[in-house]
Design a protein that fits this description.
This protein is mainly alpha-helical. The chain is 82% helix and 0% strand. The protein is built from seven helices and no strands.
């Protein structure tokens, strides 16, 4: 395959695939209702006030990842690790759990980090793939659901 055709395919195919996935996901979505809520009901002050904390939390996650990679002999740049965290969230929006593999692939591609080592640190980071933490996650989910229910009941019970 000629180099130009290959380059067009490598750029064009992901764009077309992404557009098709976005269309499929949002084909029945009510955008007018979304804009109404964003413009009339949302308190943008709280969004702006929380934004730096959200970004900082992900930066700390990237820096923590560097610390878990260093004993394995890997020394990726901080910026690449932090950016890969953000990309992993975007990828997980499309396909759950694919972001964990995506961030390891980013380090492999841009830093030359060993993919198995990076994936091993992701797995051990919180025991995400082990059965035991899922029990904790379920317990926390149930507790959060109960708290949210109480919050919304008290808010709209007047």
């Amino acid at each position: 395959m000629p180099q130009t055709v290959r380059r067009i395919f490598n750029i064009g195919f992901p764009i077309i695939l992404g557009a098709a996935i976005l269309y499929w996901m949002y084909r029945d979505f009510d955008f007018q209702e979304m804009w109404r809520v964003l413009s009339e009901e949302m308190n943008w002050w709280w969004m702006l006030a929380s934004f730096p904390f959200c970004v900082l939390a992900q930066a700390f996650r990237g820096w923590r990842w560097i610390q878990s990679l260093e004993p394995l002999g890997e020394k990726p740049r901080s910026s690449t690790c932090v950016y890969s965290i953000f990309v992993s969230y975007a990828a997980s929006l499309l396909v759950p759990r694919v972001g964990e593999f995506t961030r390891c692939g980013i380090l492999k591609r841009w830093e030359g980090t060993s993919f198995p080592k990076a994936l091993g640190t992701v797995v051990t980071e919180g025991g995400r793939f082990a059965p035991y933490p899922y029990h904790h996650g379920t317990r926390y989910f149930v507790a959060d659901a109960c708290l949210y229910r109480l919050f919304w009941q008290n808010r709209y019970s007047h």
